[in-house]
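To the wet lab folks,

You asked to see what we're planning to order before we commit. Fair enough. Below is the target structure as tokens, and below that is the sequence we designed to fit it. If anything looks off to you, flag it before the synthesis order goes out.
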């Protein structure tokens, strides 16, 4: 049976987390640029923090940082990396355990595309909007049909679901769910959520949106 649940995604990363972390040593340059351009201070959030590589960047820019991930295996790696500089939580991107309007700066990268349904993905974007302060800003990314791995039309309006195998030492493969976004679809998804789209670009085969919440009504 094809299990398309958030619990299944969590179980996948519990299985591969230790090995996965070893291949994710460095922060993405797009995230480095976003954090470097942001105002310092306040509270920052890393949704899908993994081994803490981007939370470590946020810790240099914010007064307080919260890193959230569904996988305990990855959170153990994050503890080793960021220590007590970041408050680490196990949680769900579609139901953030944070109060309204409490986050000034956020990164939500390489995680949205793992949520298995459109409803889950929309809920996670709305949750990010809920916790962002009125003048807060966030960077959201997802894997795109623009990546040269995929044979997709440049003008595609919708993306597709797929699985990409992770190969563990010893040769075992573990399938990972992805929703691959067409850029136009990603733009619509952000615009239709509680977030306000500030800018959108494609870089290294990923869609990147800088978002806030100003100007969004009920």
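Sequence we intend to order:
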């Amino acid at each position: 049976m094809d299990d398309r649940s958030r619990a299944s995604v969590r179980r996948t990363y519990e299985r591969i987390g230790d090995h996965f972390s070893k291949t994710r040593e460095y922060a993405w340059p797009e995230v480095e640029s976003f954090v470097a351009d942001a105002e310092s201070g306040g509270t920052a959030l890393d949704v899908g923090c993994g081994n803490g590589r981007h939370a470590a960047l946020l810790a240099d820019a914010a007064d307080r940082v919260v890193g959230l991930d569904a996988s305990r295996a990855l959170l153990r790696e994050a503890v080793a990396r960021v220590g007590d500089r970041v408050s680490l939580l196990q949680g769900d991107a579609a139901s953030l355990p944070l109060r309204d309007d409490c986050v000034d700066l956020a990164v939500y990268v390489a995680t949205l595309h793992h949520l298995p349904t459109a409803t889950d993905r929309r809920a996670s974007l709305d949750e990010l909007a809920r916790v962002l302060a009125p003048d807060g800003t966030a960077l959201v990314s997802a894997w795109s049909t623009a990546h040269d791995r995929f044979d997709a039309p440049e003008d595609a309006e919708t993306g597709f679901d797929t699985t990409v195998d992770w190969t563990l030492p010893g040769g075992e493969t573990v399938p990972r769910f992805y929703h691959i976004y067409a850029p136009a679809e990603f733009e619509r998804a952000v615009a239709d959520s509680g977030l306000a789209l500030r800018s959108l670009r494609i870089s290294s085969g990923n869609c990147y949106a800088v978002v806030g919440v100003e100007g969004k009504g009920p």
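Structural context that might help your review: The chain has a mean pLDDT of 94. The CA atoms of residues 35 and 58 lie 7 Å apart.

Thanks,
Computational group
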